[in-house]
């Protein structure tokens, strides 16, 4: 079969774009890396300065309050204490720091973009293929350009996680607002609500279960990407797993994996509880 397109055409274009960005926009990416680094280490210092016992008790209390189940609180308390006794508290807090920032930024981007997409079919038709590409691309692929632009460490890990975790928030915000029944919108308009008032007092509250589902998915995707980002020295529990694999240390790997499970269940229970509260 004849080859109508050169083998290295797309790869050559990608290399050219990255090289152009490095030469012409290096200062811009350095500024982003500096700002992200300040934010990451500030959040990490915040989590690490709090005594572990306080974090454990407060997190368990939040779990009980959100889920209305003392068993969830007991699980959170026992699980986090187990992580502490395994000597993985600092890596756990590094992972929590990355997740905290990535979810906050993902939601801050995703909800407004989702609102814009719900308001305009044209905007949604433009945004949807981009989201499809972002969600079907393998997570490892995200690491390649980020490493070239930002190097190794927690900052590129954070930026990669933000990119990976944003699409669900956009999709589910758009879906939730579009599914608001017309009768509620018409009632708000009948009372003289402006577009902004209608959005704030009618559409967003009614779409909140869907929006919260998007937040939950962003949290779970952030957790999975933070572990994958250990390949570029993002730190946290992912580094513990990577070291265990490299050294064939089964015990260390199981301990780190168990810590990830505890964190995932804790975040999932607390974040999904809000959906039932709202609905």
How many structural domains?
A: 1
How many DSSP-defined strands? Answer: 0
SSE pattern, N- to C-terminal = HHHHHHHHHHHH
CATH superfamily: MetI-like
The pLDDT mean sits at 85
Which CATH-level-2 architecture?
Answer: Orthogonal Bundle
> For the record, what CATH class applies?
Mainly Alpha
SS content category: mainly alpha
Describe the main β-sheet briefly: none
User: How much of the sequence is in beta strands?
Assistant: under 5%
Number of helices: 12
**What low-confidence regions span 5 or more consecutive residues with pLDDT below 50?**
none
Please compute the radius of gyration using only Cα atoms.
Answer: 21 Å
> Remind me, CATH topology?
MetI-like fold
Shape: globular
The end-to-end span amounts to 58 Å
Structure description:
- With 279 residues, the protein is mainly α.
- It has one domain: MetI-like (MetI-like fold), CATH 1.10.3720.
- The protein is 86% helix and 0% strand.
- The longest helix is centred in the C-terminal third of the chain and has 34 residues, at 195-228.
List keywords for this structure.
mainly alpha, MetI-like fold, 12 helices, globular
Structure in a nutshell:
The chain is mostly helical and 279 residues long. The protein is built from 12 helices and no strands.
Write the layout of secondary structure elements.
Elements: H1 9-24, H2 26-49, H3 52-67, H4 70-85, H5 89-119, H6 121-136, H7 139-150, H8 154-178, H9 182-190, H10 195-228, H11 237-247, H12 250-278
């Amino acid at each position: 079969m004849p080859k109508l397109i050169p083998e290295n055409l797309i790869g050559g274009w990608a290399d050219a774009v990255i090289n152009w960005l490095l030469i012409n926009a290096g200062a811009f990416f350095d500024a982003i890396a500096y700002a992200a680094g300040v934010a990451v280490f500030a959040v990490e210092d915040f989590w690490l300065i709090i005594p572990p016992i306080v974090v454990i008790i407060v997190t368990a209390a939040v779990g009980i309050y959100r889920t209305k189940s003392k068993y969830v609180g007991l699980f959170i308390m026992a699980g986090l204490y187990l992580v502490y006794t395994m000597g993985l508290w600092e890596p756990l807090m590094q992972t929590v720091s990355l997740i905290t920032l990535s979810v906050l930024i993902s939601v801050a981007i995703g909800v407004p973009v989702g609102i814009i997409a719900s308001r305009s079919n044209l905007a949604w038709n433009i945004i949807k293929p981009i989201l499809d590409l972002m969600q079907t691309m393998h997570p490892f692929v995200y690491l390649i350009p980020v490493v070239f632009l930002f190097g190794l460490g927690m900052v590129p890990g954070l930026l990669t996680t933000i990119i990976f975790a944003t699409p669900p928030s956009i999709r589910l915000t758009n879906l939730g607002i579009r599914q608001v029944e017309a009768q509620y919108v018409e009632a708000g308009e009948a009372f003289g609500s402006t577009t902004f008032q209608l959005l704030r007092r009618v559409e967003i509250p009614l779409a909140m279960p869907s929006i919260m589902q998007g937040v939950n998915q962003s949290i779970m995707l952030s957790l999975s990407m933070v572990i994958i980002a250990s390949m570029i020295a993002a730190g946290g529990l992912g580094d513990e797993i990577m070291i265990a694999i490299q050294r064939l240390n089964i015990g260390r790997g199981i301990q780190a994996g168990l810590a990830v499970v505890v964190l995932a269940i804790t975040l999932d229970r607390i974040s999904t509880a809000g959906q039932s509260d709202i609905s």
